Amino acid sequence: MASSASNSVPLGTALDRSEPLAGLLQRVRESRARFEAVAGLLPAGLKESVRPGPLDDASWVLLVPHAAAAAKVRQILPALQEALLARGWPGPAIKIKVLPRAQIL
């Protein structure tokens, strides 16, 4: 009898074989790439605490640890959007989400 390990598929292969999962992985990669493009514009105190969040057709979310960080990031949204546009990402809109305290690592 074959072990279940012999039936397992590497994660990368599974993602490539599944259109929905491959699409999700592409969105995660694009969210990270967008974040890398704008991270240098974040104030020094926020660079380590702001994280890239979900990306879909309607919005891209930046995750922040508290309301003060959200307010500061909102102040620089025009610069972030301009930087993305300069790199060929004209949209979607950037949204800010304050994470519940338990989700902040």
Quickly describe the structure.
This protein has 105 residues and is an alpha+beta fold. It contains five helices and three strands.
Please give the share of residues in helix. 40-55%
Helix/strand order: HHHEEHHE
Cross-sheet strand order for the largest sheet: 1-2-3
State the distance separating the first and last CA atoms. Answer: 43 Å
CATH architecture: 2-Layer Sandwich
Q: Number of DSSP strands?
A: 3
What would you give as the CATH superfamily?
A: DnaA, N-terminal domain
DSSP strand content? 15-25%
Please outline the major beta sheet.
3 strands, mixed
Indicate the low-confidence ranges by residue numbers: none
Q: Count the DSSP helices.
A: 5
- CATH level 1 name: Alpha Beta
Structural class: alpha+beta
**CATH fold-level topology:** GMP Synthetase, Chain A, domain 3
Morphology: elongated
Radius of gyration: 17 Å
- Could you say how many structural domains there are in total? 1
